[in-house]
Amino acid sequence: MKKRIVLLGPPASGKGTQADHISSAYAIPHVSTGALLRSESEKGTPLGREADMWTSKGQLVPDDLVVRIVSLWMAEHGQSFIFDGFPRTVRQAVYLDSALKALHSSLDLIVLLELPESEIRRRISDRLSCIKCGATFGATLHDLSAGDACPRCASPLVRRNDDNAEALDKRLEVFRNQTEPVIAYYEENFPKLLCRINAAHGSDEVFASLARNLVDA
Ligand code: ADP
Prior knowledge:
Bound molecules: adenosine-5'-diphosphate
Shape: globular
CATH class of the domain at 4-116 and 179-214: Alpha Beta
Strand order of the largest sheet: 2-3-1-4-8
CATH topology of the domain at 4-116 and 179-214: Rossmann fold
Number of strands: 8
CATH superfamily of the domain at 4-116 and 179-214: P-loop containing nucleotide triphosphate hydrolases
Strand content: 5-15%
Distance between the termini: 9 Å
Helix content: 40-55%
Structural class: alpha/beta
Number of helices: 9
Order of helices and strands: EHEHHHEHEHEEHEHEH
Oligomer: single chain
């Protein structure tokens, strides 16, 4: 069973949903750097306030800050993980490799969820997120509006401050310029670990493809 997994993909490709699913099916801790940053921001910590300045504009938070929260997480939780939204730059990928190497460990699987831009835009314009558990829902599909109770934990649903057309344009540009090189880095250094999955299918179908790749051959 693979237990050190990185999940890459553009905004709204379903990284959070799939990571949650894997986490509950296989008891692998799910770490979303976006969610860790949003939680710092809600607590109003200095780190959260600094992160907000970047996330609200759709820009990446500086590598040093992200590396700091990931190192803290790894020190507390150990070496079984599914990272969602990390690494997002080549520097972060290099950091992760060396942190694992120092622990005589390495990644088991790198998953890329692929989604066309038209579908990304459609999903983002329709997306509501829970302020507490972070679950996301298509407003139309689930007949939900901002302020309604989260179907999972009953906390309020909101539109994220970066789920608007302007911030999305920036996030897509950032994905192309900074995260696509991470895919190239993994293709070059760990070609056997990288698996591409079509994320345009329904989430159960995407999960079934993922699950096949999680189990050791
Ligand atoms: P999405 O995948 O929909 O963009 P995330 O919750 O993963 O949403 O990330 C939200 C925001 O948090 C990003 O746009 C970015 O500003 C910040 N962020 C999350 N992860 C990272 C990271 N690894 N490096 C830098 N910034 C990050």
